[in-house]
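Sample entry (149 residues):
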Amino acid sequence: MGTILKGVGRVRWHELKHAYGSAADVPGVLSRIAWGDRRASREALSDLALWIGELAVFDATVAAVPFLWDLAVTETVNSRAEVLALLQTILEHGNPPQPKVEREAHRAVLSRRVTADQLTHDSDPVVRAAAQDLLAGIDSHPGESCCRV
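Predicted structure, serialized as tokens:
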């Protein structure tokens, strides 16, 4: 699948869940985000957002976040600002019945604060603005107290 999504094939997606069931379809959607034209990338990102972030976070969310960060920093990806917005959405949503999953998903986003900070200096003003919003969300996140196990 190329260097952007290096390692995506090593994730056991079929054993993970998203909002609608098996996460076996997540690698294909990540691929469409990575290499699709603007329309295909945004449509794929919209689907992925529903699956892993807008309703709640899941174990598939935890696995997908590192790949989302990689997409956000890859200049050839057509929807980098939207990827950053999805990372912020993940940080804002939880999964009360599964606080461990919630904590892991939030940690996965929080762990790349430096990357968000770097993106606030990106050449694309839309990416810069999305990175600033995400950085503000990271900095205001309550940390471990957000989701007690």
